[in-house]
Amino acid sequence: MVCIQVQGKTITCDRGENLRQVLLKNDIDLYNGQASVINCRGIGTCGTCAVEIFGEVSQLQWREKARLSIPPHSPQTTRRLACQVKVLGDIKVKKYDGFWGQGSQTVWTES
Ligand code: FES
User: Fold this and answer.
1) Which ligand 1 atom is the nearest neighbour of the CA of 81?
2) Which ligand 1 atom minimizes the distance to the CA of 46?
3) 85 and which of 5, 11, 19, 44 could share a cystine (Cβ 3.0–4.6 Å)?
4) Could you tell me which residue ranges the 2Fe-2S ferredoxin-type domain spans (predicted)?
5) SS3 assignment for the chain
6) Cα-to-centroid distance, 5 and ligand 1 (Å)
C-alpha cells in the first residue's frame, strides 16, 4: 500500500493504481468547476485533471506528454495528468486554478 496526501486527507491505494481513479473514488475535487462534468473521463485528451505531484509516480508517456504540450498547458509545465499517472510510492498532490488546472493560484494542497 502507498499513501496519498491530498486535500487534507491521507488515503491509501495499491502501488500502481491510477491516480485519477483513486482520487475520484475518495471524493477528492480533482476537477475545477465545470470540468467535473466536461472532461474526457480519463483518456488523456482534455487536460483538465492536471495536478502537481510530489513523490514517486510513473514516467511521462507520449499521450500525456502530447496533451501537456498544448495550451493552456505548456511543454515546460511541471503538472501531470492524474488520469495518466500510476502511483508508485507515497505522494502529495496539489491542484491549481483554471478550467484545466493550469493556473498559478493554489486551489488545494495536500493539507
Ligand atoms: S481526464 Fe482528461 S486528460 Fe485526464
Assistant:
1) 4
2) 2
3) 19
4) 1-99
5) CEEEEECCEEEEECCCCEHHHHHHHCCCCCCCHHHHCCCCCCCCCCCCCEEEEEEEECCCCHHHHHHHCCCCCCCCCCCEEHHHCEEEEEEEEEEECCCCCCCCCEEECCC
6) 20
CA of 43 relative to ligand 1 center, distance in Å: 6
pLDDT in tens, 58-105: 999 999 999 999 999 999 999 999 999 999 999 999 999 999 999 999
pTM of this prediction?
0.96
Which residue's CA is the closest to the ligand 1 atom numbered 1? 42
